[in-house]
Structures are given as C-alpha cells and as structure tokens.
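User: Can you help me understand a structure? I only have the sequence.
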Amino acid sequence: MRMLVLGAGLQGSACAYDLLAHTDYDVVLADINVDNVAGFLQPYVGNRLTLARVDANDRAAVRQAMDGVTATMSAFPYYFNLGMAVAAVDAGSHFCDLGGNTEIVLQQKAMQDRAVAQGVSVVPDCGLAPGMVNILADHGIRQLDEVRAIRIKVGGLPQNPEPPLNYQIVYSLEGALDYYTTLSWVLRDGKPTQVKALSEIEELEFPGVGTLEAFHTAGGLSTMAQRYEGKLPTMEYKTLRYPGHAKAMETIRDIGLLDLEPVDVKGSRVVPRDVFLSVVGPRLRKDYKASPDMVVLRVEAEGVKDGEETVIRWDLLDRYDAETGITAMMRTTGFSLAITGAFQAQGKIQPGVWTPDECMPAEAYIEALRQRGVEIRESRLTPAEAR
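Assistant: Let's start by predicting it. Here is the structure, written out as tokens:
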C-alpha cells in the first residue's frame, strides 16, 4: 500500500515519519524542494520512502503523483486544500489535510456526492486545532446526557519564552496571522456568532506550565458551530499564549501592520503584512534544540451525566522530542494527519466528506496518539472543581 504526503515542511515531514515508523506502508513525500529532507527521515530514503519533486501549482503533476495512491495527506498551505481534494477524489485516493480555513472546508463539503461515488473519504481540518480538539469535543458531547458548554483552549508555545511577544514560530506564521485577523465562529445561546480575534482574554493556570492567557482566534472550531446550531448553547475555541501576547498582537493588528491592502512607500506599493512577515518572521524563528517548544491543550465538555452536573476534561502537555528533533507541534499536528490517513486506508472512515469530529473513532484515535507518546489525560470534575 502506498501513501502520498504533500509538503516536506515541518508537518509533512512529521506525517511521513509517523507513517514510516508506525505502519508498513510505502510513503511518497512530494514537494517543490525535497533536496534537504529532515534528518529523522534520512534512514528511510530509498527504502520505503520515495522523494518526488512536485509543484503544488502544477495540477497535472499533482494529479499524476496521486495515481495508485491509497491515501493522500496534504501539509501544503491551506489555500491549496480544495484543489488537492478535487484531484485526490478524481484519482480515487482518500484525502486529508491540515485545514484551518472554514470557508474552504465548506467548499470541500460540497464534494460529498463525488467522494461517495468514488468510494473515498475526504477529511479536512485534521491536525491539532482544528483536528484533535474537535475529536475530543465531540467525544465529550456524545458522553453527556445534556450538554451546556464546550470550551477548547490550545496553544503551541516556547518552553523558554522571550519578550516582547513571548512566542516563537511553531508552524506557519502566515497562518497564525490569519487566525489573529479573521473573525472567530462561536456558539452563543445556540446560535453561530462571530467574535473578534484576540478578544475576551482570560487567564488559565495549567499544571507544569503556569499562568497562560486564552483568547479567541479563527479556524479552531472548523464547522462545529454550524453543526451544533440549536443543539447546545455554548461552544468556543481560544488560543493559549503567555500573558501579554494578545494585547501586543492586537496593537500590531489595529495600527495596520497586518493589513493586506498595499500602501505607498516612497513610490512603491507594499503590503504591510508582507513587511511584518519579512521583518518579524526571522526574529521568531528559533533553533528548536536551543529553544524547544511545547503544546498545551485543554478541552472541556460541561453538562449533565446520570443526573449529575459534570465536566469532562482532557489535558495535554507535549514537549519537543530531543531524540528525534521532532517538535511538539509536529508531533501533535503531523502525527494527527498521519493517523487520519492511516485510518482512511484501513477503511475506518466511510466514503464521503467529513470533518474529524464527524468521522474519527475517538477512542482508537486517542490510543493511537498514546502509542506515539502523546498522552491525553481525561478527568471527570464537578463544575466547581473545574473553575
């Protein structure tokens, strides 16, 4: 059985590694540049790992790479996801991606009939957030007799923060800025509502980490706000950072440095966000050996179980793996992508287009992560204990 991973960056490399380490599938890793693949992949090159030079903009080449492939996992930037999904379905390949853009996911959902006719599944939004957190949230919903609220908080953080932003790049900075500038979907009184990113800051004490702040960002709920409209009253997704980060980014955003409309600078048209990425990006890009990262996650489902007020909580604290050089963000995002693709190849997901909360077998998924050392801890609390 052959699997195709699109994108040889951080997440795609982690996805390919996970497939090679935890399945017996052959893997093709495709990108426009595959000359310097990650060191942890080198032992597999020429054995079960094939490297293919493919430009994401060359649809014919992408389609050709999918021939004979059981499942395709895309770690390309989100704006390629729709085209990649269309090509995969046409090729008769299962497809999953890291998502992050709800409008594109809705367009992918419109492919339901085509996917079913081809006998393949398409699963967008299957990284960490969206992805892992949505699977856990839906797992909680199905365990409660009555659901009052779903609250999701997650963040990729440096273990040793440095001012002024106390942040380092753990995935695409371009993607993070999208989340900081796009309205976030939530459920309020059972109705899908959009709130401003970086708003409604709250503090959270997380064991082993300390004080963090949580604030709204876009993309994390995927389509869950629409799916559960009128079925439960409250659902929200917030990003975790060290205290002070949200206000700093709000200032940067509100003075226009993240705008996409070009402005005149000494006779040239310049996009403010491009300047920000060019100037700030290198300062936030760290050597993970010297500045290791971690992922912090908390998902809570609050409601009633057997007549008792109950909060089901999942906590995760994952850290950079010094032995392999794989970051916590790669472990939780890239591994999640690989697990999804493997489940599709194994027939555990029925044909059609599904978000992870709609189709992933939660207990099997949590166990697969545990086997990889990504430990999600579940606890049952009263609402008072959860505060």
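Now, to help you interpret it: The radius of gyration is 20 Å. The chain has two domains: 2-127+331-369, 132-329+375-386. Let me know which part you'd like to focus on.
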